[in-house]
Design goal:
Helices cover 0% and strands 46% of the residues. The chain has one domain (11-116): Immunoglobulin-like (Sandwich), CATH 2.60.40. With 128 residues, it is mainly β. The protein is built from no helices and 10 strands.
Length: 128
Amino acid sequence: MYIYRIIYLFVEEESAAIYITGREKLYLGEKATFFAFIDSKISSINKIFWRRKNNQGNVTCSEININDGKYSGSKTILPSTELHIHFVCTKDEGIYEVVVESFNKLVYKSINLDVLKGGEDTDVCIAM
């Protein structure tokens, strides 16, 4: 009996076939909204998702659960996908990426979110 193991090697690349728009500098408590438009040049799409690099600048990323209340209203459908981040706080700062997984490649585009404190504001993250 033979056991075969298929190993998928994903190549990651930033792509000009994805365009992201949205305000990158927000004040505490505002809602961040990023729109990503995915060009039809990317073929054989298996999955679309958003992820966030940790705010220490490390390479590690975590996939965002768009069903979480913090991200309610977010969508991952073609040709445009949206990420909504409600009541932003400093913990939300960082690099957000929309990722398109196709056959053996992860194609992504990044946008950076900066959260500004104004005057007497306190940094309280509101759980939803």
